[in-house]
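Hi R.,

Here are the chain sequences for the assembly we discussed:
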Amino acid sequence: MAFFLQASNWGLQTFLGRCFLFQPASTCQKSLALMVHLLSRDQVKGLPFTTSSQSAVPQDLKGVHMLHKSRSGSRDGKKEKRKERSREEDKEKSLMSPFSAGAAKQRSVSQQTPTSMRLPRLSKKDDIQPPEKPLNAEEWQEWRTRLEHLTDFENVMLHQMIKYESSIDVAKSLMADVVLRNGEVKYNLLLGYLILCVQQKQVAEIFDIYDIMKLRFKTLDPGGYSLLIRGLSDTERWREAILLLKEIRKVTPPSKGNYGYCIKGALNNQDVQLALEVYHEMVAENVMPPLDVLQAFFDTCKGTQDDKLKKELLDMLLCFRENQVYPNEALMQSIKLWFESVPGEKWTGRLTSIENGWGCPVCNQVLETIELSKKEYNILKKKIMKNVMQGSDIFKKTTPQELKRFQDFMENHLPYDIVIDGLNIAGSVSRIGGYNVLFDVVSYFAQQNLRLLVLGRKHLKDFQSWKWNAMTAMQGKVDFFFTENISQDDPFLVYATLHSGNHSKFVTRDLLRDHKACLPESIQQLFFKWQRGHQLMPFSSRTKKISFAPILSYDTVVQTTGDTWHIPYDDHLVERYSYEVPRKWLCLQRK
Amino acid sequence: MSIFNMLLRNVVRRSVFPFAMKERRKNGFFLTSFYKTFPRRTLNLSSYLKDAEPNPSQKLNLDEWKNVMQSRRQEEICEPTSKCEEDSTLTAMREFVEMRRLAGRLVPENITEEELKTLMELPTKSSRLKYLKFLAKRERKINAKKAKQEKKNQEQEELLGSVEKRDTDELKNTFLKRLHSNTLENLHSWRAANAMIFGQPLVFDMVYENCMSHTELGNAVDQMMECEGFNRKSVDPFHLHYCNLSVDGPYHKGFSKRYGEAWDKLLVTVTEQCYTNLFPRDRLIYLTPDSRKIMTTFEHDKIYIIGSLVDKAGQPGTSLARAKRLNLATAKLPLDKYLRWTLGKKSLTLNQMLCILLTLKETGDWKEALQFVPQRYHDGFVDVDLLSRLNDAKF
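And here is the predicted structure of the full complex:
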């Protein structure tokens, strides 16, 4: 890469010199970007440059940046530092499963390209600071004339007050002024005022507004109801919040926030039975309860003797299991404390992280395996065929002839140990270096005496080099299958791996998210579990040695054996993506 | 209690009177309503009295507005009771819309029964809000149009008034009679009729009607109408074929609704048959942005097929799959070759496609044809001169 940049640098600079003669500077920049692109493309096509495995296409953006900034030495220094840092991360990265929390973040850091910061948009409203003291009518009139350009002065002012969390008295004086001027307060202003009251927990004011609204309007909009529910839920009139919930349901299904505040209100007042009722209603509506609501349940029910209630709480944990949801750190602490507070059962909870291995290092309990059961496996196989391969139109991803050809091919060959996504490993065709990586990967597995299948499109076959001849020598172990150029090869990869059986693994850097999206939701979880257990992801070989991320042998999910509970949770310091699973665990053990 | 009331009355009178006098007409109710009802919450008063603030009048009227609001209610409450006999869910929905409007959200001012029913049939909250937003925007557009029309009419009347004075003048001596719009229409129809006999066919594949939602289908019909209009007005029109159009299907219904009687007089070939039955296979080229083959020149002996599909949900490969199924040649426009593409999908609307093809047919110039690609999608044309100069510099 470095060589390529230098070489092109030289060419560019001479060109640059010429360019400055004819063209104004602004067009020069554009042409420069174009040039770099063209040069890099032509180089790959025509010139005998050998580049390393790094990609040329995303890099040439960087090249332009370096050119612009090459005069300032500090930039280069920073770049060096970043390189060093990413190298260090490489070492750490190689220990982590690609589906562990934070893995994607690490990958993205090492491949970071400089992005331009987006500036927040400023509007006319943004520089208005609301008054600090309550004003009288004359003073408000003054403000009005000063801010003549605002069409909706009161509303804007109220929302600026919400933004700056002004004192409630200021808002009151504004409302008094509005009444003086118009004789009434409009609904949207009342709502704005209510937001301010709820924000600052002004209980008496909330009650007043609620009474006014009840008197004035027969119904409210869901936004108003939600605010009232939120405001009323932690006061002594919390029961009315639950009535409001019923009002909302008349027109639209309540949101999880609505349910959540009602439940919290009931729990704050020790009415667990009512809270559970609302909770069940919420689950029946297919609304996923927010984590802080569940936390409230565990907090309130500490030290309970009631077996029925205990069962309810354990059911909530099992609900996590079914929906592949993981508690956050705060909820985990509440769960831990709750377990430890159950009288008569001596639970001890400890935090741990289980990296590679079979079981929990604290209690030596073997965790559930990542392998799918026979039945699940068959369901997945069938659904992949039906939803991913065929989908709504089989011609979208392949053709019936090709599918037939592939199925015949699979039947005539033994099951494979490893299926390799040739195009993904080799990168795009324009990268010569990519083929070296593919060759390395293939020979790495071939040396271990594994049966390999390399999938690719026909244009992969056309691009033959001397290394491919060497590869044909290994033909006994390696099979190739090439799809049409306009077909998608990923579904074949998944199908071939599934067809080969449970021991078979596949190699690709692709996360297969678009294929996962073709499946119905319950199957998506199965697919993800299977993917975590069977996908090998190679790391780019700067050190010229192929290494793969480890496959975890256990399933990351809430699990119990009666005497133990293992609950994975989200570390609040690590940002977890939806296709990743947490690395930290809570281990609960009964003695 | 009565002392408080006296106090309050005095204070309020003192603080409020000057403004109330100023805008008497507006706030006249204030005095009357104030005497009618006693304030409900007086608890704040006592504390303020004790504190003896330097400016008590200002503090005191902070809560006053609530009393005003509450006193107003009692008058209004009795009104809306008669309408309750309607379908209860429908009224609940109507109230929901009304309250949303009061809350300052984007909802239509008037909503018909039919629209309310459609609203209720929508399954999710977000889809309902989206529909309301759509209705509101449509209403706003219609109102703006109406206002504009009225203004125009008014201006016209004024103009007529001034013209009438000159009407007594002699008629002008002209070489031509005034060119009326139907003269032009006749010419266009003549050309279109010619194209029906001698013109190059251009096929619209109407097979996708079941892949589209209601809105998308509506958009597709609009685009097709625009296509037909633009084609008719061109110098050398295509012979348009609407193939695979099922009788009484959604497309057919959409067309007959929009065109009315004119649908039967349209100078295009509408058929239920597939284009593979009408034309030799080797002359057909399916235009799709997912194709791997890039179109280089417009060929006058080929028959181009455009899939009339509006795809807002983003399910790529639909038309390519269709071409694959029928084993047809495919091609895509050389957008990347001529334009510096910045954002947006590469699939253009039907009328843009037709404009591009028509221009290509007339001039064969890609740069001219690709003027019809919306400018927001790209950052100008690729400089062909620079390209060639670069090549010269290199080799």
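Confidence is low (pLDDT under 50) at residues 16-60, 74-85 of chain B. Chain B is about 55% helix and 10% strand.

Let me know if anything looks off.

Best,
T.
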